[in-house]
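ugh ok fine here u go
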Amino acid sequence: MATSSPSAPSSGSRPGQYPRRNVDPFASIRRNHRIKVPQVRVISPEGKQLGILDTPKAVNLALEVGLDLVEVAPTAQPPVCRIMDFGKYVYEEQKKHSHAKTTASKIKEIEFSARIEQNDFVTKLRHAEEFLSHGNKVKLRLKFRGREMAHTEIGFGVIKRGVEDLAGMGHPDAEPKLIGRNIHVMLTPLPINKRKPKFHVPDGVQEEAGADDNGAAPAEGA
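structure:
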Protein backbone atom coordinates (compact mmCIF):
# COMPACT_ATOMS: atom_id res chain seq x y z
CA MET A 1 0.00 0.00 0.00
CA ALA A 2 1.45 3.35 -1.03
CA THR A 3 1.84 6.03 1.59
CA SER A 4 1.57 9.70 0.87
CA SER A 5 4.81 11.61 1.11
CA PRO A 6 4.99 14.57 3.50
CA SER A 7 4.42 17.91 1.88
CA ALA A 8 7.55 19.82 0.99
CA PRO A 9 8.37 22.95 3.01
CA SER A 10 7.42 26.21 1.38
CA SER A 11 10.01 28.11 -0.61
CA GLY A 12 12.54 29.99 1.50
CA SER A 13 11.94 28.00 4.70
CA ARG A 14 14.02 25.29 6.30
CA PRO A 15 12.59 22.00 7.63
CA GLY A 16 10.99 22.47 11.03
CA GLN A 17 10.63 26.22 10.57
CA TYR A 18 7.75 28.44 9.61
CA PRO A 19 8.36 31.02 6.90
CA ARG A 20 9.06 34.49 8.21
CA ARG A 21 6.34 37.06 8.03
CA ASN A 22 6.53 40.83 8.15
CA VAL A 23 4.51 41.98 11.16
CA ASP A 24 2.46 45.14 10.66
CA PRO A 25 2.25 46.90 14.07
CA PHE A 26 -0.96 48.63 12.93
CA ALA A 27 -2.74 45.50 11.69
CA SER A 28 -4.44 44.92 15.05
CA ILE A 29 -6.16 48.33 15.00
CA ARG A 30 -9.76 47.78 13.92
CA ARG A 31 -11.29 50.29 11.54
CA ASN A 32 -14.41 50.75 9.43
CA HIS A 33 -16.20 47.44 8.68
CA ARG A 34 -13.74 45.46 10.85
CA ILE A 35 -15.42 47.02 13.91
CA LYS A 36 -18.02 44.39 14.85
CA VAL A 37 -19.56 45.75 18.09
CA PRO A 38 -23.12 47.09 17.70
CA GLN A 39 -22.41 50.57 19.07
CA VAL A 40 -19.38 52.85 19.54
CA ARG A 41 -18.65 56.19 21.15
CA VAL A 42 -17.54 58.52 18.34
CA ILE A 43 -15.06 61.41 18.31
CA SER A 44 -15.02 63.80 15.37
CA PRO A 45 -11.85 64.67 13.41
CA GLU A 46 -11.68 67.92 15.43
CA GLY A 47 -11.83 66.02 18.74
CA LYS A 48 -15.48 66.72 19.57
CA GLN A 49 -17.64 64.07 21.25
CA LEU A 50 -20.43 62.92 18.91
CA GLY A 51 -21.96 60.53 21.45
CA ILE A 52 -22.83 56.84 21.14
CA LEU A 53 -23.87 55.77 17.64
CA ASP A 54 -24.78 52.52 15.93
CA THR A 55 -21.58 51.23 14.36
CA PRO A 56 -22.86 51.09 10.74
CA LYS A 57 -24.02 54.71 11.05
CA ALA A 58 -20.65 55.78 12.49
CA VAL A 59 -18.78 54.01 9.68
CA ASN A 60 -20.94 55.67 7.03
CA LEU A 61 -20.43 59.05 8.72
CA ALA A 62 -16.65 58.63 8.40
CA LEU A 63 -16.72 57.31 4.84
CA GLU A 64 -19.00 60.12 3.67
CA VAL A 65 -16.26 62.65 4.45
CA GLY A 66 -13.52 60.49 2.94
CA LEU A 67 -12.06 59.38 6.28
CA ASP A 68 -11.94 56.22 8.42
CA LEU A 69 -13.60 55.17 11.65
CA VAL A 70 -10.70 53.96 13.81
CA GLU A 71 -11.03 52.16 17.13
CA VAL A 72 -8.80 54.04 19.60
CA ALA A 73 -10.01 52.58 22.92
CA PRO A 74 -11.18 48.99 22.29
CA THR A 75 -11.60 48.09 25.99
CA ALA A 76 -13.98 50.95 26.80
CA GLN A 77 -17.70 50.27 27.13
CA PRO A 78 -18.68 50.92 24.41
CA PRO A 79 -15.38 51.11 22.47
CA VAL A 80 -14.23 54.61 21.54
CA CYS A 81 -13.67 55.34 17.84
CA ARG A 82 -12.33 58.42 16.11
CA ILE A 83 -13.00 59.66 12.61
CA MET A 84 -9.60 60.23 11.02
CA ASP A 85 -7.34 59.65 8.03
CA PHE A 86 -5.88 56.27 9.02
CA GLY A 87 -3.13 56.40 6.39
CA LYS A 88 -1.98 59.80 7.68
CA TYR A 89 -2.11 58.49 11.27
CA VAL A 90 0.14 55.53 10.37
CA TYR A 91 2.57 57.85 8.55
CA GLU A 92 2.81 60.24 11.52
CA GLU A 93 3.36 57.37 13.99
CA GLN A 94 6.11 55.87 11.83
CA LYS A 95 7.71 59.30 11.49
CA LYS A 96 7.71 59.79 15.29
CA HIS A 97 9.19 56.31 15.80
CA SER A 98 11.90 56.98 13.23
CA HIS A 99 12.74 60.33 14.87
CA ALA A 100 12.99 58.69 18.30
CA LYS A 101 15.40 56.07 16.95
CA THR A 102 17.51 58.75 15.24
CA THR A 103 17.66 60.82 18.43
CA ALA A 104 18.65 57.80 20.50
CA SER A 105 21.44 56.93 18.07
CA LYS A 106 22.87 60.45 18.51
CA ILE A 107 23.46 60.11 22.26
CA LYS A 108 27.02 59.17 23.17
CA GLU A 109 28.09 58.15 26.67
CA ILE A 110 31.37 58.91 28.41
CA GLU A 111 32.04 57.03 31.66
CA PHE A 112 34.23 58.31 34.48
CA SER A 113 35.34 56.94 37.84
CA ALA A 114 35.68 58.85 41.08
CA ARG A 115 39.46 58.23 41.18
CA ILE A 116 40.15 58.87 37.51
CA GLU A 117 43.71 59.88 36.58
CA GLN A 118 44.21 63.27 34.93
CA ASN A 119 45.47 61.78 31.64
CA ASP A 120 42.41 59.52 31.37
CA PHE A 121 40.17 62.45 32.31
CA VAL A 122 41.56 64.62 29.49
CA THR A 123 41.31 61.74 26.98
CA LYS A 124 37.64 61.22 27.81
CA LEU A 125 36.92 64.93 27.51
CA ARG A 126 38.65 64.96 24.12
CA HIS A 127 36.29 62.19 22.98
CA ALA A 128 33.31 64.10 24.42
CA GLU A 129 34.30 67.23 22.50
CA GLU A 130 34.63 65.19 19.32
CA PHE A 131 31.11 63.78 19.76
CA LEU A 132 29.70 67.25 20.47
CA SER A 133 31.49 68.66 17.41
CA HIS A 134 29.53 66.16 15.27
CA GLY A 135 26.21 67.31 16.75
CA ASN A 136 25.74 64.38 19.17
CA LYS A 137 24.34 64.77 22.66
CA VAL A 138 26.77 63.44 25.28
CA LYS A 139 25.88 61.78 28.56
CA LEU A 140 28.57 61.99 31.23
CA ARG A 141 28.23 59.11 33.68
CA LEU A 142 30.30 58.44 36.78
CA LYS A 143 29.99 55.05 38.46
CA PHE A 144 30.85 54.60 42.13
CA ARG A 145 32.54 51.39 43.18
CA GLY A 146 32.62 49.79 46.61
CA ARG A 147 33.06 52.29 49.42
CA GLU A 148 33.28 55.29 47.10
CA MET A 149 29.56 55.86 47.77
CA ALA A 150 30.57 57.20 51.17
CA HIS A 151 32.16 60.20 49.43
CA THR A 152 29.82 61.13 46.60
CA GLU A 153 31.13 64.69 46.72
CA ILE A 154 34.33 63.45 45.02
CA GLY A 155 32.32 62.06 42.11
CA PHE A 156 30.24 65.23 41.81
CA GLY A 157 33.49 67.20 41.73
CA VAL A 158 34.76 65.11 38.79
CA ILE A 159 31.52 65.49 36.83
CA LYS A 160 31.23 69.23 37.50
CA ARG A 161 34.84 69.71 36.40
CA GLY A 162 34.01 67.82 33.20
CA VAL A 163 30.96 70.02 32.57
CA GLU A 164 33.05 73.17 33.10
CA ASP A 165 35.83 71.95 30.77
CA LEU A 166 33.26 71.13 28.07
CA ALA A 167 31.47 74.50 28.37
CA GLY A 168 32.98 75.63 25.08
CA MET A 169 31.27 72.78 23.22
CA GLY A 170 28.05 71.95 25.07
CA HIS A 171 25.76 72.95 27.90
CA PRO A 172 24.10 70.69 30.51
CA ASP A 173 20.37 70.03 30.14
CA ALA A 174 20.07 69.90 33.94
CA GLU A 175 22.20 69.66 37.07
CA PRO A 176 24.11 66.37 37.59
CA LYS A 177 21.97 63.82 39.45
CA LEU A 178 22.82 60.79 41.55
CA ILE A 179 20.74 57.77 40.45
CA GLY A 180 21.62 54.56 42.28
CA ARG A 181 25.42 54.26 42.15
CA ASN A 182 25.78 56.59 39.17
CA ILE A 183 25.92 60.33 38.57
CA HIS A 184 24.39 61.41 35.24
CA VAL A 185 24.36 64.64 33.30
CA MET A 186 23.37 65.21 29.64
CA LEU A 187 25.14 67.77 27.46
CA THR A 188 23.65 69.33 24.34
CA PRO A 189 26.03 70.71 21.69
CA LEU A 190 26.27 74.47 21.31
CA PRO A 191 25.50 76.12 17.95
CA ILE A 192 28.42 75.62 15.53
CA ASN A 193 29.44 79.28 15.57
CA LYS A 194 29.78 79.25 19.37
CA ARG A 195 31.85 76.09 19.80
CA LYS A 196 35.36 76.50 21.25
CA PRO A 197 37.05 73.13 21.84
CA LYS A 198 39.55 72.95 24.66
CA PHE A 199 41.05 69.50 23.99
CA HIS A 200 39.85 68.25 20.60
CA VAL A 201 41.41 69.48 17.34
CA PRO A 202 38.48 69.86 14.91
CA ASP A 203 38.57 68.06 11.56
CA GLY A 204 40.54 69.99 8.96
CA VAL A 205 42.53 71.95 11.56
CA GLN A 206 46.12 70.76 11.86
CA GLU A 207 48.60 71.80 14.50
CA GLU A 208 51.61 73.67 13.12
CA ALA A 209 54.37 71.20 12.29
CA GLY A 210 57.29 71.38 14.66
CA ALA A 211 55.49 73.50 17.26
CA ASP A 212 56.74 73.07 20.82
CA ASP A 213 54.51 72.47 23.86
CA ASN A 214 53.76 76.19 24.17
CA GLY A 215 52.54 76.37 20.57
CA ALA A 216 55.62 78.24 19.33
CA ALA A 217 57.67 76.89 16.43
CA PRO A 218 61.43 76.39 17.11
CA ALA A 219 63.77 79.05 15.79
CA GLU A 220 65.62 78.33 12.56
CA GLY A 221 68.92 76.53 13.01
CA ALA A 222 68.02 75.33 16.50
